[in-house]
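To the wet lab folks,

You asked to see what we're planning to order before we commit. Fair enough. Below is the target structure as tokens, and below that is the sequence we designed to fit it. If anything looks off to you, flag it before the synthesis order goes out.
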């Protein structure tokens, strides 16, 4: 690459960063259309930045354009396959689409890459519960509880109790149901 081409590339990357910052501000202010325009401009200038696809995917998700959000999250994931957050976002979209097995796989991968990712563990449990993999659901909920970082564990106890009841483990289910009352 010539010096002139390197300078052009550097300028484009810097300009893309400016669009991304403006897009984030607009997104935080609730101006999703403005944010989307800025993220599109940023990606046009620097299509190799996985975080730009994440940001645009978040806007699509907020607009309930789940197919477009998933496409952007998968693009980010293809560029950075070690990022647990990207797997989590893909899992969340697939969960919203009620694609339980896909959701479970994405959440499990996020939890594998980042074992302390409490929400990945919890959502993996939820996806397992929906796909009737009840033992795995209980396992994920147990890990979630051990991590102990949920602000309100009510849904954790209720979900785990549901799985335990279906597994005929009544005494354990009763204990979880009691926890929902405190």
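Sequence we intend to order:
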């Amino acid at each position: 690459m010539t010096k002139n081409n390197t300078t052009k590339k550097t300028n484009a990357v810097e300009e893309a960063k400016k669009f991304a910052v403006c897009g984030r501000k607009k997104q935080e202010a609730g101006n999703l259309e403005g944010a989307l325009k800025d993220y599109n401009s940023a990606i046009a200038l620097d299509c190799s930045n996985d975080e730009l696809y994440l940001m645009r995917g978040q806007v699509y998700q907020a607009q309930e354009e789940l197919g477009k959000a998933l496409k952007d999250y998968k693009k980010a994931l293809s560029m950075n396959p070690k990022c647990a957050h990207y797997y989590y976002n893909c899992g969340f979209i697939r969960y919203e689409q009620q694609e339980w097995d896909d959701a479970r796989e994405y959440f499990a991968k996020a939890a594998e890459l980042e074992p302390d990712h409490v929400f990945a563990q919890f959502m993996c449990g939820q996806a397992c519960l929906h796909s009737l993999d009840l033992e795995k659901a209980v396992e994920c909920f147990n890990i979630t509880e051990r991590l102990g970082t949920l602000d309100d564990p009510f849904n954790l106890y209720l979900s785990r109790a549901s799985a335990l009841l279906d597994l005929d483990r009544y005494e354990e289910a009763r204990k979880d149901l009691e926890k929902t009352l405190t």
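Structural context that might help your review: The chain has a mean pLDDT of 94. The two ends are 65 Å apart (CA to CA).

Thanks,
Computational group
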